[in-house]
Amino acid sequence: MKASTLTAFSSVERGPAIAGLMIAFFLLLFLIVPVGQVIFVAFQDPNTGSFTLINFADFFGNSLFVESFFNSFYVASMSVIVASIIAMPLAYFTTRFNFSGALLIQTLGIIPLIMPPFVGAVAMQLLFGANGSINLLLEEHLGFTIPFMEGLNGVILVESVHYFPFILINLSAALNNIDRAMEESAQNLGAHGTRLFRRIVFPLAMPGYVAGAALVFIKVFDDLGTPLLLNINNMLAPQAYLRISSIGIADPMGYVISVILVGFSLLSLWISLLALKDKDYATVQKGGGGLMRRDLRTWEKVGCYGVVILILLLVLSPHIGLTLLSFGTVWSFAVIPDGFTFDHYTTVFDTASQYITNTLLYAGIAALLDVILATSIAYIVWRTKLVGRKWLDYGATAALAVPGVVLGIGYLRTYHSFDVPIINEPLASWWVIIVIAMTIRRLPYALRACIAAIQQVSVMLEEAAENLGATKGRTVWRIVVPLMSGGILAGFVTSFATASVELSATIMLVAKDSDAPLAFGIYEFMQSTSGRGPGAALGIIAVLFVGVGTYFSHVIIERSKKLREAKAIVAEGGTT
Amino acid sequence: MTADIGNSAGVIINDLNLSFGETRVLKGVNLSIEAGEFFAFLGPSGSGKSTLLRAIAGFGPRPTGQILIDGEDIADQPPWKRNVGMVFQSYALWPHMTVHRNVAFGLEERGVPAPEIKRRVDAALDMVGLIDLAERRPSQLSGGQQQRIALARTVVVEPKVLLLDEPLSNLDANLRVQMRREIRDLQKELKLTTIFVTHDQEEANTTSDRMAVLDDGVIQQVGAPVELYDKPCNLFVANFLGTANVLQGTMSAGKDGSCVFQSENGVAINLGTQPHNEGAMVFRPQNVRISKTGTNCKAGNVQFQGTVGHMEFHGNIVRYGVDVSGHLILIDETHQRGSTLFDIGASVDLQVKQGQIMVVPGH
Predict the structure, then answer these.
(1) Same domain for B220 and B300?
(2) What is the mean pLDDT of residues A220-235?
(3) Number of structural domains in chain B
(4) Closest by alpha carbon to B134, among B124, B171, B164?
(5) What is the CATH number of the domain that holds B250?
(6) Residue B309: in which H helix or E strand, if any?
(7) Buried/exposed code over B154-182 (b: 16+ C-beta within 10 A; e: otherwise)
């Protein structure tokens, strides 16, 4: 009896167990070993190979590295502050007032995300730089200029404009989720106005804000593309890249910087998790329903729209600048380009189309791998009792804490001497490694989409299929996957769109120009003044990729949400 | 905490109307609640009972009409100036504050000196028996404990009126019975005017001195629980306060001057010489006696013949559904050990005392 139970159990779980082992092996090879290797090398004496802290001592003994460290910290902190200044009024307007501009604000929350920050950086330089449109106008009409893009300011401005939606989205969600009774009970006991806001509303929304702010901090701290494009090299990520690309993979400084980057990533993720932990309690309960909203007076409405439009212009400025640049002939010391042309697009399609085809191929494969891995992990974690299944989830999610530049360095270090059979080329310089880097980096996003999807599928639907004779495998194929299709598709589109503009890992891994993807192409073009036009044209193509992808992902999610609501209504009707 | 709050006040509501957009939710509500009274708003969901309670606390759209507390119209005052304490359905304990700080909140807002806050908070927590949990967070408390803290937080500010919005709905059945007794005891101890919203007639019956039954934004009837049960003013109240047998029909005069009710299916019922108005005939299942056919009809009783259609054993009672000329009559018979039950399909006689039959307006 016991033996037969065991056999039945293992045959049911055998498929998922094999899949789980394969995924674990993949994560081990392409995430854990490379990152472990980076950490290992950072603590290894370059001469003797023994454990040492000498590399860290060297790092902090070098004034350029110390400066880079403080610059990265300063830029990330200031970006959080500037992003908060942009996001807070927007979150406040939509959650406290009956504000008709809410749709505009929602749009504001998406627009920046469809353009990678490094793509907009050059355009921002042309608009806000010392000789950019805004300062030329200021100089001419008011006689002074503002150093928006001077040194680190430029990085802060570009990053804040790009990443403020993280704070906006998290803070709005937190404010919207506060049970109205929380506010009403305080009023009932005598609190109102700013005291009510300070004592009740703000503390309750704090976790959402902290979660968003921690995300912004870490994204900026890790970003490589923006400082590189703005020619700011005295920051951590550019230093890591420059050390490895100029001195070589034996230099320990790149690894020390990587360990610092990973350490800060983990710290930020930990802070954001801590902030959100056990905070569901205050969220909307039976009889609740968001904060109280009031109508705006006319002058308040004017003020609100004024602020929103100002932010909209700021947020759209990289897009406007990039569009002008991609169609402009010469744009130097002028408010707008001297003339307009389609030449840059022609150049791109004539000479740089391999960037586009490479991107379609790489991001397509990466996204496909991501949803296959993510669906399997989601199923194993939520539907099986396999030992250690949670570790698959943790392992895949851990990629969030690994900056692209660190993953790139890890791959170079681990696989530079591993020749791929048949083609006899090191794995680290084969184009497939770029696809794997994209896959690992986007897996956490696909995984969240697939986990959300599988949580919506009732186990009873699977049990019904098994009851009618379907095996586990057939049930997954015929019931689970079709019901998860919305989430899987959304995961695919998100992975594809974001992988297509991935720069920080790929910049380390591109061995030859013919293997390079779009993001690398934009970076290459933007290096020279004459290449800025075609670079901008490529940038616009990248924005279209991401924009169209984001739009479809949104449509898919909305459609499956509606479908679910319809199903819920049917289910409710069925029980009464 | 003082045993007698002392500032407990009466509540008078005059012609209160309230709309959510185009939808009228309260339609001309008039009500008078005595100081120190335990009063229930009872009604189905959507009847406007919670909206009425929230209007007294100052939440929701501004109603027209008057809300007088202690003779003062508070309808235009913001919630924080009204001094009416409300316990929310979800308790609304703030998760970022300890139990002690939750309870101290209202006193702090009133600028009470710190030593007095400490004394009064401790007294309030002692009163609800949770002084030991003062430093816990709300998330570390059970549902019943949260309920007590929410009560302590509200009564500690010594409100003029205590409002309870379905306070028992989030508790399990056993705890609910216990908590409603505790709330009732606390109210008696503090002599605090209390308004209690519920959709559960048993809760309203067991706790309140008087209650108002609401339907569709209109108060249907106000009175003590027994009075409403025994003398419902209309069919809605009769049905909402408990299971009722309802026969629709017409009233006519009998030969001996008595009132005869003629049901839609042709059953004629002599209601005696007492005059009755037009309406539906209503009687409760526990007022019907069931017996084998051929039983003599006692004087002053009304008798029907019928066939047992279904039988449900509830433990303390047996409920029969008897078909009388196409009308389904429910009978509750108390169950005794060893008693014989009537089979389905058996022919039976039903008797009801004329005095137990009510004729109420409504269809």
Answers:
(1) no
(2) 89
(3) 2
(4) B124
(5) 2.40.50.140
(6) strand B301-313
(7) bbbbbbbbbbbbbbbbbbeeebbeebbeb
Q: Is B84 on the interface with A (CB under 8 A)?
A: yes
Q: Write the pLDDT tens digit of every residue in A113-151.
A: 777 788 888 888 888 887 778 888 888 888 888 888 888
Q: Which helix (H) or strand (E) holds B304?
A: strand B301-313
The whole-number pLDDT of residue B67 equals: 95
Q: Bin A333: left if φ > 0, else alpha if -120 < ψ < 50, else beta.
A: left
CA dist., res. A211 & res. A397, Å (int) = 16
Measure the CA–CA gap between B158 and B4, rounded to whole angstroms.
10
- Identify the domain containing residue A138 by its residue range: 72-341
> How many angstroms separate the CA of residue A200 from the nearest CA in chain B?
8
Same domain, B235 and B355: no
The residue whose two tokens read 């570790």 is: A391
pLDDT value, residue A384? 83
Residue A466 Cα distances to A12, A470, A478, A479, B266, angstroms? 12, 5, 11, 10, 56
Does B267 fall in a domain? yes
- Probe site for chain A from B53, B96, B164 (most A CB atoms < 10 A): B96
CATH number of the domain at A194, please.
1.10.3720.10
- Residue B58 in any domain: the answer is yes
Query: Quick one: closest CA in B to A200, which residue?
Result: B94
Q: How many domains does chain A have?
A: 1
pLDDT classification of B114: cutoffs 50, 70, 90: very high
Q: What is the ipTM of this complex?
A: 0.77
How far apart are the two ends of chain A, measured CA to CA in Å?
43
| Cβ-based burial of A341 (10 A; exposed 0-12, middle 13-18, buried ≥19) | middle
Of the residues B193, B223, B240, which one is the last residue of a structural domain?
B240
CATH of the domain at B211: 3.40.50.300
Do B46 and B172 belong together in one domain?
yes
Inspect the interface and report whether the beta carbons of B80 and A200 lie closer than 8 Å. no
Instruction: Please report, to the nearest 10 degrees, the dihedral formed by the alpha carbons of residues A519, A520, A523, A529 taken in order.
Output: -110
Q: Of B240, B271, B300, at which residue does a domain stop?
A: B240
State the pLDDT confidence band at A285, using cuts at 50, 70 and 90. very low
The mean pLDDT value of chain B amounts to 90
- Angle (CA) B238-B203-B125 rounded to 5° is 160
Instruction: Give the C-alpha separation, A524 to A537, whole Å.
Output: 13
Does residue B183 share a domain with residue B34?
yes
**CA dist., res. A145 & res. A147, Å (int):** 7
Coil, strand or helix: which one is B42?
A: strand
Q: Are residues B278 and B137 in the same domain?
A: no
CA dist., res. A375 & res. A412, Å (int): 29
* B59:A279 CB<8 A: no
Shortest CA distance from B94: residue in chain A:
A182
Nearest by CB: A191 against B58, B80, B90: B80
Sign of CA dihedral B201, B202, B204, B210: positive
Residues 138-197 of B with CB under 8 A from A: 138-139, 153-154, 157, 165-166, 169-170
**DSSP string over A262-291:** HHHHHHHHHHHHHHHTT-GGGB--TT--S-
Distance from CA of B104 to the nearest CA of A (A): 10
